[in-house]
Design brief:
- This protein is mainly α and 276 residues long.
- It has one domain.
- Helices cover 76% and strands 2% of the residues.
- It is built from twelve helices and two strands; from the N terminus they run αααααββααααααα.
- Strands 1-2 form a two-stranded antiparallel ribbon.
- α1 packs parallel to α11, α3 packs antiparallel against α10 and α4 crosses α10.
- Its main location: membrane.
Length: 276
């Protein structure tokens, strides 16, 4: 049983690493995957695993963007990079709305909205938004083309879009923040990069919260499943982040919009047929 569960954890790690960073909703894919590939664990462990597996994805961002994220230097003496400290201030501002809602109503949100109908609707809705916004911005020059140009006001607006994703699964955290950023004139590559940075405190906080709620009593198989999922998610995330940044230098996000619409429709159809 242990080897089979490890293989399942590898599959979940691959899906997490791909879908966490592409704006296509990791939750939507996890719902479908979980319906076909059942982890032979308790319901509480599985709920924790599906969140904490994201920790591996976070590490990918930290490794790739270490120089952009670390505000302190340690050469001959300690140096402080004020531009990076300023960026972290904006990241914190952007994270405040989702953090407050998550801490106060995490269980209520999960009970009311974590279902295939919500996921499908949000997949389709934000897929349509991607297509509309990209068509609207087709011949426009972005107002903000670097992280340093993002103001606290801009960061807060992006954070409010992130809040939508925190409440409604299927929105996609990266999808929501990128849509919000594009709407207010942020360049695609800058929007994607800022979204990666936002993920660090958000996903780290969510992982710690789930771990604290679950406790620290694991079987050997559970430890293996969790570590395997995180390691695989890390490796796949490194590849996907690099792919996405290269892709959007020459292409827009419309392909992800069409994919979201197709996936949302497939999920609705699948569960409708299954209910008969």
């Amino acid at each position: 049983m242990g080897i089979v569960e490890i293989l399942k954890a590898i599959l979940f790690g691959i899906v997490e690493g791909i879908t966490e960073w592409l704006p296509i909703s990791s939750t939507g894919h996890m719902i479908l995957l979980d319906d076909f590939v059942k982890l032979n664990t308790s319901a509480t462990f599985k709920a924790m695993f599906l969140v904490v597996i994201q920790f591996g994805a976070i590490l990918a961002v930290i490794v790739i963007y270490w120089k952009n994220l670390m505000p302190f230097g340690f050469q001959k003496r300690l140096t402080v990079k004020t531009d990076i400290l300023s960026m972290w201030g904006k990241i914190i501002v952007a994270c405040i709305p989702a953090a407050i809602v998550g801490l106060l109503w995490d269980e209520e949100i999960e009970a009311f909205f974590y279902n295939y109908r919500t996921v499908s609707i949000m997949l389709i809705l934000f897929g349509i938004l991607f297509i509309i916004i990209e068509n609207y911005n087709r011949n426009k020059q972005p107002k903000i083309s670097a992280i340093s140009q993002i103001s606290y006001k801009t960061a807060l607006i992006i954070g409010l879009f992130q809040l939508i994703a925190a409440i409604f699964p299927g929105t996609s955290r990266s999808g929501a923040t990128i849509v919000g950023a594009l709407l207010i004139g942020v360049a695609r590559t800058t929007a994607a990069e800022f979204t990666f940075y936002l993920a660090v405190p958000v996903m780290f906080g969510a992982s710690v919260l789930k771990l604290a709620k679950f406790g620290f009593h694991y079987t050997g198989v559970e430890v293996s499943i969790l570590l395997t999922g995180m390691v695989v998610a890390f490796v796949v995330s490194v590849l996907i982040i690099k792919f996405l940044m290269n892709y959007i230098k020459k292409h827009d996000f419309k392909v992800f919009g069409w994919y979201r619409i197709a996936l949302g429709s497939i999920i609705l159809l699948y569960f409708a047929v299954k209910s008969f």
